[in-house]
Amino acid sequence: MFALDKLPSLSANEIGKINVFEVGFGTGLNALLTQFEAEKQGVSINYSTIEASPLPESCWQALNYPHLFRSRVDSQIFAKLHLAPWNQTIEISPHFTLEKIHGTLEAFQAKTGEFDLVYFDAFSPDVQPELWTVEIFREIFQGLSTGGVMVTYSVKGDIVRALRSAGFSTVKLPGPPGKRHILRALKTIINTGA
Question: One digit per residue, pLDDT tens: the chain, 194 residues?
């Protein structure tokens, strides 16, 4: 659902490395699309993702996402993403490292300013309301660098209000096919007048 092609076009010299955190590795599609864009744009990505319930191999193999790309390399990358060991950082390709964290978001604590971009792709607020709280969003806010971005598919009023209570400024963006809007939440620079 989310990919770097939605971000402003920047060269690797302008941004160096981007630290991405994904809530919910799931099918691996976000990681696959991000890896594809990283190689295409020549931008280095450190990609961390947390997942409490990894998909069995039979499920992710049946999805056959690489067929959409019609490339042998992407097929190998997709398998490499899923077969990467948990709780270790490994190089997937020249511009993309991956750390898959096997655990719950509630127990995870990011370092202050650790991430530049967060894909919040958890199950819906109706299914997992405990992941869509002000407290969780405050933890993510703290884990983002100043000027960092969080994107999510949920644009529900309760979610927007929770994000704003956590310190984010929010804006609705056009969504992908089949989804009218997505939400971008920014950790804006606060001018204290000092």
Answer: 444 444 444 444 456 799 999 999 999 999 999 999 999 999 999 999 999 999 999 999 898 787 777 665 578 899 999 999 999 999 999 999 999 999 999 999 999 999 999 999 999 999 999 999 999 999 999 999 999 999 999 999 999 999 999 999 999 999 988 889 999 999 986 644 44
To the question of pTM greater than 0.85 for the whole model, the response is: yes
- Taking the C-alpha atoms of residue 90 and residue 74, their distance in angstroms, rounded to an integer, is 17
CA distance 154 to 182: 6
Residue 73, CA distances (Å) to 45, 65, 77, 92, 138 in order: 18, 12, 6, 11, 38
Domains in the chain and their CATH numbers? 15-103 (3.40.50.150), 126-194 (3.40.50.150)
